[in-house]
Amino acid sequence: MRFISVFSRRFTTLAVASLLVPAGILGISPVSAAGRLAATVDVPADVVTEGLTVEQHIEQQAALTASLLRELPPAASLKQIRIPVTAQEMASIRNVDRASSPLKVGFVKQLSRAIGVAGIDKGFKAQDGNLIWATVVRVPEAGAIRLHVQDLNLPEGAELYVYSRTGEAYGPYTGTGVDGTGDFWTTSIFGTEAIVQIRLTGREAEALLRNASMKITHVGVISATFPDPDVNTLAFCGNATCIVDATCYSAANSIKDAYAKMEWISGPYIYTCTGGLLNDSNPSSTNYFLTANHCLSKAATAKNVSFYWRFRTSSCNGACPSNSGWPYKTTGAGVASSNRNGDYTLLTLNTTPPAGSVRLGFTSAPVANTNGVALHRVSNPDFGPQVFSQHTVSTSAPQCQGWPRGERIYSRDTLGATDGGSSGSPVVNASDQVVGQLSGGCGTNVNNVCDAVNNATVDGAFAFYWTSVQPFLAP
Fold first, then answer.
1. What is the dihedral of CA 128, 134, 140, 145, to 10 degrees?
2. Are residues 60 and 163 in contact, defined by beta-carbon separation less than 8 angstroms?
3. How far apart are CA 308 and CA 260, in angstroms?
4. Beta-carbon contacts of residue 473 (< 8 Å; ≥ 6 apart)
5. Does some domain include residue 28?
6. 332-360 per-position pLDDT tens digit
7. Quick one: DSSP state of residue 76?
8. Among 169, 199, 222, which residue terminates a domain?
9. Most CB contacts within 10 A, which of 254, 310, 336, 443?
10. Which residues pair with 346 in a beta bridge?
């Protein structure tokens, strides 16, 4: 295991004494190409005005779901496929170390026989002047389902949707898919079933379908609960006792609409981290999103990452938000810049976040070597609701190998804490300006997430990698 891929205080498993970097390694300030100290760049926060509000999005999904259900063939003729899940497969996520990063929250199951369409076949039914093909995929043990679509090639006028009976609907997926490859993962559908439906309109529908193709080769199964069921009595939503609800703190109000819980597929598993929107002075109007390199860094992974916006409690220490239905998810991103040094990934979102979301401001001014600087953040540990934490920069906290001060910011927790799934969460200063993002932790008692005396929180320093992201954020 690389230590830079471990992110919360209890994730680093070696004692500080064995992890100290050489005394000669000092903090590094950003410099210009000529070697002079670069001028500080400050960009203020902004608010997303384009796109749909959460309320509009919910209304749109409800209307689309109702329309699709009206066209759904009768139950007697509707093909239904049950995906068997073994106890071992469920244990692979239920028994995961909740401190690992990125945190594992689901697994991928390859189908022994792909679900698919190849030209016009008996699966298509005439409904209200349209040709409809539909299949219900059931996974009784699932909290949510994602589907791997391959070889998508639909004629003009054909639309693929994936939806639930409870009001979630995603699509239309058309042509050869999101990026023209015909290969992608659909956005997760909460619950134990996902309805896959193709609609084709027009008088030439049957003729057009002769060359159509689509197959589902894998099913992603996401845990029904975000915390370990055995720790539900610890604190709100199953978190450790020191972790606090972001909804309880007014200091979180100005930044919490920037953060999103992330969920993506990599190999045989589904993972989660946290990230946040960044503002920029680039006239391209791209929606930039900052997270950690050790979470994800590859374009092939980023194109299928989903963002759960505003996943939080509705009142202070109120009922935990349910993973059985969340109102606003978007899927897909590109990678603008990423590096292990500084442990950062700057994504570009394929879909506009909810209107009213905050794009965080930032500063290129270094803080890693300024003792006592106050920092705070919002994050989504354990694939659960937003939490809040405050920290103070510590220049005396021992350093872990591979994480030199300057490239990383060491701080002590003064309120709350982070945990598995918090990785990548942007940390801001007292002016709500991003100065870094969560890498992990370093200390002598890292198995105790609440030990702020013997452990330090470690962030990748925005100032360290500023020259790499400046061409995107402030050209």
1. -110
2. no
3. 5
4. 43, 278, 280, 281, 282, 288, 346, 362
5. yes
6. 999 999 999 999 999 999 999 999 999 99
7. G
8. 222
9. 443
10. 290, 337
